[in-house]
Design goal:
This protein is of the alpha+beta class. The protein has two helices and three strands; from the N terminus they run αβββα. The longest helix has 18 residues.
């Protein structure tokens, strides 16, 4: 039994090292979840909008996220299924001067 314990510990550590090797590194800049826990469907007047950030679905978030920056500095998540948000996104995507933010 006393010789079996070190062998079991060695196998356990080797297995953990193999599992950890295949996992992506986690750092401050690594997003492992969606940014928006809740979304708003209410219409935001255009004069209150300062910026619009479009985050496409990826491995960490199964849906598209639309984050609006307001003139008062607040950021809110908009419901991408709302008709007015879809129209706003189409308008923004048609403008050549707007840069799209994508997750890298």
């Amino acid at each position: 039994m006393s010789k079996l314990l070190p062998l079991l510990l060695l196998l356990l550590l080797a297995g953990a090292a193999l599992l950890a090797h295949g996992m992506p590194p986690i750092s401050r800049d690594y997003n492992t979840h969606c940014h928006c826990a809740e979304v708003e469907s209410r219409v935001v007047p255009p004069h209150l909008l300062r910026s619009l950030k479009l985050l496409p679905q990826d491995a960490h978030c199964p849906h598209t996220e639309v984050i609006a920056g307001l003139t008062n500095g607040e950021k809110i998540c908009l419901n991408p299924q709302s008709s007015w948000v879809r129209k706003l996104v189409r308008f923004v995507l048609r403008r050549p001067s707007i840069q799209q933010d994508t997750r890298a």
